[in-house]
Amino acid sequence: MSRHCVEIWSDCLKMIRENTQPQSYKTWFEPIKPINCENDILTIQVPSQFFYEYLETHYISLLKLAINKVLGPNGGLQYSIVMDNYGTDKPYGISVPTTGTTNTQNPAVRVPINVDDENEKKIVNPFVLPGINKIKVESQLNENYSFDNFIEGSCNRLARSAGMAVAERPGKTAFNPLFIYSPTGLGKTHLCHAIGLETKKYHPNLIVLYVNSEQFIQQFMSSCKNKTRNDFVHFYQMIDVLIVDDIQFLSGKAKTQDAFFHIFNYLQQRGKQLIFTCDKAPIEMKDMEPRLLSRFKWGLSADLQQPDVETKIKILKRKAYNDGIELPDDVVDYVASRTKTNIREMEGLFISLIAQSSLNKKAITMDLARQLIERFVSNSSQEVSVEYIVNVVCNHLNIAIEQFYSKSKKREMVQARQLAMYFAKKYTKNSLSVIGQQCGGKDHATVIHALKTVSNLLETDKQFRALASEIEKNIS
Fold it and tell me: Is the peptide bond preceding residue 177 cis, with omega within 30 degrees of 0?
């Protein structure tokens, strides 16, 4: 192994690490060894055929970007796959060139990725005034995030159905804007990509653009610096279907919000479709201009809830099928039942499970699943917040977040708030005053009354005790 190839691969890893989750990086990139680099072709050794196929399927665009950045446009990548040499004690290697080498004869599939340099290439410059004809815009949609791969369940049925309706008739339904919200890891980004992809199927001539709010903010700041703000706004006013992910990051940025407001108004008035995702409902957003918040509520606000075990089983089976992996039913049931936080955690467990099976050449069994999950779950603790507890209570009682924070004094609303305050006192370290403020602006005395009421009902009302127990399972 030459020092030259080690340094090259080390430079590649710096970029890869910044654009992958820590668990994925540890699983799929730490085991790789650089073994040679000649004529700008880097050869890396991977532990198995499955390992090679997984990299080619899931990380080829990222590898291509890293090689391109370190070795230049003529750089390439080749795998050395460790194979079992039956009859001897030593494995042997076979060399396979990547399907995504950076030369022009064998280009990689273009998949959007959050890398500053790449974004400048993928997004058509938003600061150049277009001509009379429509300009070609890279939509930045991930083909893997389609409706085919988005499993429907009671947790997402409303948002999914609304998304399908929007894709068929963008800008012509009552769902404009379509505001999708949920805590992290429940499929917001997947769903908005799916809507964009479906829209392009039905309407190939429309300009569809997916952009996360951080990209939008960076572009706006550049336009201000370069004195091209009008060109920036004009570019976004040409979009037919604008999808903005994680809109909450605009909070507190008054000038960016002002530019976004004018873009929103222009597109909405001309019947263009607007789709936003956020980690909270519009009513919960802070440091956002009232005129923007009111417009977020014009269309449909649809939340994604925690999936039930049945839906998680369907998600795991679909993922295993797409990756060509056979998982025993008892393993699928076990993994689905043991993940309590979000879909992303469950998928991380799934990836770790098949990686352990491949690297250790072991069959996927219940014992292997138990070992991995017990180690993983014991080393990861979910941070419980008042906001999270409120979401769990509302989901279980089938109450809209807006109703929870309203001034309604209906019995079910009062009881929902009292339950949220009770569990917030039990599972968080917040003071009673903070709990009251985050449960609808209630005072210290109201929280004390709620705690006493819930405690009394738990002792005297069997039906209420069962309800509280079911909610607590989802919190803990």
Answer: yes
